[in-house]
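Annotators were shown the component list below and the corresponding predicted structure, then asked to write short factual statements about the assembly.
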Amino acid sequence: MMKALLPQLMLGALFAATSSLAPEAHAQASVKPAAAAPAKFTELAKTPQMGWNTWNTFACDIDEQLIRESADALVSSGMREAGYVYVNIDDCWHGKRDENGFIQPDPQRFPSGMKALADYVHARGLKLGIYSDAGAHTCAGKPGSRGHEYQDALTYARWGIDYLKYDWCDTEGLNSKGAYTTMRDALRAAGRPVLFAICEWGDTKPWDWAADVGHSWRTTGDIYPCWDCDFNRGTWSSWGVLPILDKQAGLRKFSGPGRWNDMDMMEVGKGMTEDEDKAHFSIWAMMNSPLIAGNDIRKMSAATRKILTNRRVIALNQDERGIQAWRFMNDGQLDMYAKPLANGEWALMFLNRADKARSYRFDWNEHELKDEFTHNQVHFGKVRHSFTELWSGDTGDTGKPYAMNVPAHGVVVLHLRPQSPR
Ligand code: GLA
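Structure shown to annotators:
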């Protein structure tokens, strides 16, 4: 144990004293060395990160061939062009630590090594993500980073890793803010910009402490591909789309550029109906969740590809203002969400939670929207807006009530733009 820890400790001391700090840290250091506080890489995740992750479909059954094929599929499917740039390897890529404590990839599953894989991914205009855990073991029992944070961060930087999802298994007795801050500092010290995705399932309210630590934080336990269910796994549960949505109550004020509420990797294309998948995708977009696909993108149907690459919906998620939607009305079955966008534009989502389709007539005169958090407000009855429905392409304006039919477990999503002042 001591043998493994020593190089790690030496590395930590070396980083603290010398060269791989960012230029601004050097500037501070020359004035007052003790004040050179490491920080997260603030230039990343100005809009929610987009990509693909192995876990939801493949769990531990992963290897370098799958990663290469999936990187190729991101390109050929048009997903990369739509914004999905992170190729994220989740749990189970690990082999053993070497005699100095440096982590190695599983030699059977990743025989070419991670650097070669990163080169492959980068050559396609994509970025490579990896996974570790704040405890001694990951959730699948692989080596975690506890006590090896600086070594692991340095290893990831050498490999050319761009994204770290950092899990929370095997952490009894650890302080979450401290544990995640240690890895943040280690990443900063290693010098390569790495998007830091916190994954402690909302257990210790990361929205309260993580804005300066990571770029996103999971708000809930794991997702499951169902509409309104939970899947009991004994000591914990996975959640369907609606339970995850409902667990976001009260969190919107913590979301913004560089600090996103992460509702988990998506289950689009994993067995729900097409309407449910469209609703799931629209909800994640409206709520500013990272958009990380979790299906087998090498084999997805045309319908799934179309949902994941709906640029009009993606644009809501990627809006530069980064304001998370709020629910302004619900009648138990039909939820209505509003999201202020750049240039005085708005998105509205009508979400039918029920098992039956729903006809609804929305009278613009009856709804003055006031965002108590950002103070954006609009009265569509007084200021006429044109709109596009983002799944059908239908267009209209707010001059007359809008009659819509919202599918069962489905959505209608409108993007509204003010018409020129009259
Ligand atoms: C946890 C995470 C999941 C996944 C698994 C891997 O459950 O929440 O997203 O990373 O661990 O073991």
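Statements collected:
1. The chain is about 30% helix and 25% strand.
2. The first strand starts at residue 50 and ends at 53.
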